[in-house]
């Protein structure tokens, strides 16, 4: 028997590792069950979506620690709040200075909105729908609907009658697993309503493709709900002759819609967290390829692009404001927009600051 040379041993080792890597990429079990789908044609960055540098003027309200103030809320005194990745909710004074800790949900606070009693209502990705009083005391309002626990409580808005409308982005994947939900591309999301009077939670819409931002119209007749993975915003009627009906408000967006809010005067502010990703669109018809991508290391998977993109929409879903900054400087991956006291406030999943500019 002839001895195997070191060179051949090395070759065999590399070949074996490569074979094992191929086996892993092709047959290792994954949590996703992708379905084939056909994405809409993205709107080009021309005309109403023409690229510009308006958001280059964003002022940064810097954090002293932590990152990712995904949503922003302003109280009756003008203090500014943001929820961070580490569970803390921080508060700036009305000048946008002196950030301090207001509360800690021990989860991941996303959507924020003050009710008429001055309580901060929070959609926490892991803890559910919460209410926090002015002293920072936390009360859990609801954590499930129809015997199905929330797994990714996301955004909310509050009606004049006190009803809290909110989204559960995915009943299958958590906030840390949002990329898995994108690669699976199944309707795991829900639009829900919580009544503080009855303490009951009702499912209004299910089978949504990543239910995200929620906003109520000023006349209280309809809700807007973002479907992030289908690049569109839906309108759900809560009053009038169309009550209970759903229709497309705007579609074929050039980016991933995240947060949405009403300024109370007929403009809905929509955050596009990132431009559309050609890799995700090209993988859409191929579930088996999406399983392979899911098995890749995190740094090789699709990720948000550092780009700033915000739209203002009227009641008919028409674009009336188009604010961008392609470089992503000084603020990017905008996940929420809130109009308050003459400013637009911006949240982000990645920044170490809250952003703001004067309302256009």
Oligomeric description of these chains = single chain
Strand content: 35-45%
Fourth-tier CATH superfamily name: TolB, C-terminal domain
Q: Helical segment tally?
A: 4
**How far apart, in Å, are the first and last alpha carbons?**
82 Å
The rough form would be described as globular
CATH architecture: 6 Propeller
Helix/strand order, N-terminal first: HEEEEEEEEEEEEEHEEEEEEEEHHEEEEE
Uncertain runs are none
Neighbour order of strands in the largest sheet: 1-26-25-24
- Helix/sheet category: mainly beta
Please tally the β strands and state the result.
Answer: 26
Based on CA atoms alone, the radius of gyration comes out at 22 Å
Helix content percent band: 10-25%
Supply the number of structural domains: 1
CATH topology category name: Neuraminidase
What kind of sheet is the major sheet? 4 strands, antiparallel
**Averaged pLDDT:** 94
């Amino acid at each position: 028997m002839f001895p195997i040379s070191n060179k051949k041993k090395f070759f065999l080792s590399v070949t074996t590792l490569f074979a094992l890597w191929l086996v892993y990429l092709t047959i290792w079990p994954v949590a996703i069950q992708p379905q084939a789908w056909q994405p809409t044609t993205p709107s080009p960055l021309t005309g109403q979506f023409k690229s510009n540098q308006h958001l280059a003027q964003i002022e940064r309200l810097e954090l002293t620690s932590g990152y990712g103030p995904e949503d922003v809320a302003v109280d009756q005194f003008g203090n500014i709040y943001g929820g961070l990745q580490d569970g803390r909710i921080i508060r700036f004074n009305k000048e946008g200075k002196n950030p301090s800790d207001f509360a800690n949900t021990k989860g991941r606070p996303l959507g924020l909105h003050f009710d008429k009693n001055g309580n901060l209502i929070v959609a926490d990705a892991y803890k559910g729908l919460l209410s926090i009083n002015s002293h920072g005391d936390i009360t859990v309002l609801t954590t499930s609907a129809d015997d199905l626990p929330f797994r990714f409580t996301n955004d909310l808005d509050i009606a004049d009658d006190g009803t809290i409308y909110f989204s559960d982005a995915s009943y299958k994947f958590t906030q840390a697993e949002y990329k898995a939900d994108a690669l699976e591309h199944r309707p795991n999301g829900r639009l829900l309503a919580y009544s503080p009077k009855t303490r009951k939670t009702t499912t209004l819409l299910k089978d949504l493709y990543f239910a995200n931002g929620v906003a109520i119209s000023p006349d209280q007749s309809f809700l807007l709900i973002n479907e992030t993975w289908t690049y569109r915003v839906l309108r759900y009627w809560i009053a009038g002759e169309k009550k209970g009906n759903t229709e497309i408000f705007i579609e074929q967006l050039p980016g991933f819609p995240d947060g949405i809010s009403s300024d109370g005067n007929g403009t809905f502010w929509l955050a596009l967290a990132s431009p559309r990703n050609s890799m995700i669109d090209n993988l859409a018809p191929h579930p088996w390829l999406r399983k392979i991508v899911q098995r890749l290391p995190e740094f090789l998977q699709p990720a948000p692009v550092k780009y700033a993109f915000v739209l203002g929409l009227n009641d008919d879903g028409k674009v009336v404001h188009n604010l961008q900054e392609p470089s992503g400087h000084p603020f990017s991956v905008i996940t929420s927009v809130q109009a308050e006291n003459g400013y637009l406030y911006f949240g982000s999943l990645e920044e170490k600051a809250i952003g703001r500019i004067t309302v256009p």
